[in-house]
Amino acid sequence: MRQTHKGQPIAEWCASPNAMRLNKLLRMSRRDVLLGGLGLSVAGTTGAALAADTIPATANTEDLSRFMLVSQRLTDRDALNSQIGAALYANIVQANADRKDQINALHTLLRRVVS
User: Fold this and answer.
1) Residue 101: is it exposed, middle or buried by C-beta count within 10 angstroms (0-12/13-18/19+)?
2) What is the pTM of this model?
């Protein structure tokens, strides 16, 4: 690289001040790449661990089937997504423990009406 003015490359002493700042900001060293990669891997691992903690526990299949029958009747739909239903049931029961008994009571009432 040809240096002509006070030991600086031509690209630096001929450029405007903004171009010089941008040029310095855009340079990446191996250290920058390694630290950036390390940061991304830690963030990804932490994010995956937090997401695993927020997944609700699976419900009893009998309770879940009751919830799905009640939901199907209340929404007046022929088919419901079982994964969404399981997540909704787990969160509803987790929010309030009495909801499980209320869902079972609704299921019993539904069976009486249908029969």
Assistant:
1) exposed
2) 0.49
